[in-house]
Design brief:
The chain is of the alpha/beta class. Helix content is 33%, strand content 29%. The protein has a six-stranded mixed beta sheet, with helices on both faces. It has a four-stranded antiparallel beta sheet with strand order 2-1-4-5, covered by helices on one side. Pfam families: ABC_tran (PF00005).
C-alpha cells in the first residue's frame, strides 16, 4: 500500500474582498508533496506564493478547495487545533530569523518545546542535538546580537527542527544574508533533506529554487509549472 502524501492540495482557491469587489489571489491550486521531498515554490511579487505559504503553514485557511496535511483536512479545524498543528507539525524558517533578542540561542530553540509541554530532560536533548546539527553547540549561550546573520539563521533552523516536525517551511531563508552565507544555509537545508526532512522553500530567487529537487512556479495565482530538477 502506497504511503499517502504529506501534503495534498486540491483546487485550492483564496481571495479577499476589497472595496466591495472580490480579489482572487489563488485559483485552482492542486499538487501533492510526499514525505522527504525538497520543493521550491517560486514566483514574482504578487504571484500568490506568500498567500500559498500561509495556507501551507496553517497561518490562514483558504476560501475554497481542500488541504490535507498528514491526512488531516486543515479547512475543518478550529483555530486552537491549527495552532497545535503549527507547533507540532511545521517548523518555520523566516527571512528575518524571528529570534527573541533577550533569549540565548539555546532558549530560542527550546521555547517551542516548552509550549508543547515537552519534559525538561527531553527538551535539553532535542535542543542540544539540533544546535549540534547546525554547528552551533559552542554558541548556545550567546544571544542573537552576539551572532552573525548566518549563525542567527542556523539558530532559526535548529529551532525549526528541534521538535522533529514532518515539514520545514522556509520563507526566503537566504534573503537577509550575503551570498556566501546564503550558500552555507542552503547547504545545511540540503543536508537536512538528506536526513529525511521534508522541506518547502518559498522564494523569488531562481538560483535558490534550482537547488531544490522540485520546483512549483506560481504566476497570477495559478501553478504554471511543476517540474523535477535534474539530480
Amino acid at each position: 500500500m502506497a504511503t499517502p502524501p504529506l501534503i495534498d492540495v486540491h483546487n485550492l482557491g483564496h481571495g479577499y474582498r476589497m472595496a466591495g469587489e472580490m480579489m482572487t489571489v489563488l485559483s485552482e491550486i492542486s499538487f501533492q508533496i510526499g514525505h522527504g521531498e525538497f520543493v521550491a515554490i517560486i514566483g514574482p511579487s504578487g504571484s500568490g506564493k506568500s498567500t500559498l505559504m500561509n495556507m501551507l503553514g496553517c497561518l490562514d485557511v483558504a476560501n475554497e478547495g481542500a488541504y490535507l496535511l498528514d491526512g488531516q483536512d486543515v479547512r475543518k479545524l478550529s483555530d486552537n487545533k491549527l495552532a497545535t498543528i503549527r507547533n507540532e507539525k511545521i517548523g518555520f524558517i523566516f527571512q528575518q530569523f524571528n529570534l527573541l533578542p533577550k533569549l540565548t540561542a539555546y532558549e530560542n530553540v527550546e521555547l517551542p518545546l516548552i509550549y508543547r509541554n515537552v519534559p525538561h530532560k527531553e527538551r535539553r536533548k532535542s535542543v542540544e542535538e539540533s544546535l549540534s546539527l547546525v554547528g552551533l553547540i559552542d554558541r548556545m549561550h550567546h544571544r542573537p546580537s552576539e551572532l552573525s546573520g548566518g549563525q542567527q539563521q542556523r539558530v532559526a533552523i535548529a529551532r525549526a527542527i528541534a521538535g522533529a516536525p514532518p515539514m520545514l517551511l522556509a520563507d526566503e531563508p537566504t534573503g537577509a544574508l550575503d551570498s556566501r552565507t546564503g550558500v552555507e544555509v542552503m547547504d545545511k537545508m540540503k543536508e537536512l533533506n538528506a536526513r529525511g526532512h521534508t522541506i518547502i522553500v518559498i522564494t523569488h530567487d531562481l538560483s535558490i529554487a534550482e537547488q531544490a529537487k522540485r520546483v512549483i512556479r506560481i504566476q497570477d495565482g495559478r501553478i504554471v509549472e511543476d517540474r523535477r530538477n535534474p539530480e
